[in-house]
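quick one before i forget lol
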Amino acid sequence: MPPLNLLIKPVSGSCNMRCSYCFYTDEISHREETMPNRMSPQTMETLIDRALTFADEDCTFTFQGGEPTLAGLAFFKDFSTFAKNHPRSEKVRIHYSFQTNGLLIDSGWADWFSKYQVLVGISLDGPKSIHDRYRIDHNHLGTFDRVMDAIRLLDAYKVDYNILTVVTNASAYKGRKIYNFFQKNHLNFQQYIECLDPLDVSRGTSEYSLTPEHLGRFLKDIFDCWYSDIKSGHYVYNRYFENLMMIILGLGPESCNLRGICSPQWVIESDGSVYPCDFYVLDEWKLGNICTDSFETMEHTRQTSGFIQVSHYLPEECRRCKWLNFCRNGCRRNRQITETGMAGKNYFCDAYRTFLEYACPRLIEIYHLLKQPSMDR
């Protein structure tokens, strides 16, 4: 049995920021069900009990939002204490990860992260001028300085963290500036994700919408910087590039958008409702509720719903493409739905194709370089 990974939203979509491009705010607007602003202790305990009973050897609890820190530090202390004292905790290895905007991080949070070896993701879109364009608080004020304060605090407490950056049309031509800023601040664990357009809106029509042309340019600029650093002996983790090298090695990528089909996921809302993907926390795809339904029952619902099956469709153009093994048509959320209701060609196809043509020979070179024992990773 593979490790059990749960993505938990303890405060649903509640957030202390008003990011212009927030995909989850858009998802909530498409739901009829209203979620509580905070997961109850009863739901929390049921979730942990069912998860640790179902898990085989490993169970990862990942917290996301909205902004999960709004649940309060006491909630997470109770969570980790209950999990640690669970009868199955001696047989199941428990792991934690936490995605946050950083605004509420103080010494108490940093201490809890450190104590439970929580892997933290910090949302940071680049230097101040880029980050503050879209990542604003309730008062429409930029949040850059507060995020950087949180990062320095995590450093002080020796907390492992990575940087999550949303790429928009406004930032896509500033890839080198973003990368150099991260390097100057020793932020060497990076993940870049494409900005999502709202549901039921034509692609590329929002002010922040990312176009395939701009994404292709961004990937090339980031790659050139990364390649130069790796060649000079300075290791930088880039999730996308690492996954491409896993494919070169013949391994399955860990990132689901490179697997070709949707993978089974468990996304748990604040009321215990369970969904198959963070991008599809919608009424029509609900699998059940952790408080009333077993994992086996919800897995059956996943299979009969056809959610994963929709992602199996591969356009003929993809089948003929030389880069299919590296691209695999990307994330379902970025695929254009066909007349038959299947997930068709990826909106960012041209970006991936031009980038892979540009970078693949050097990716293979770096792969062989990183295999050398002298390379410090």
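fyi Residues 55 and 242 are 28 Å apart (CA to CA).
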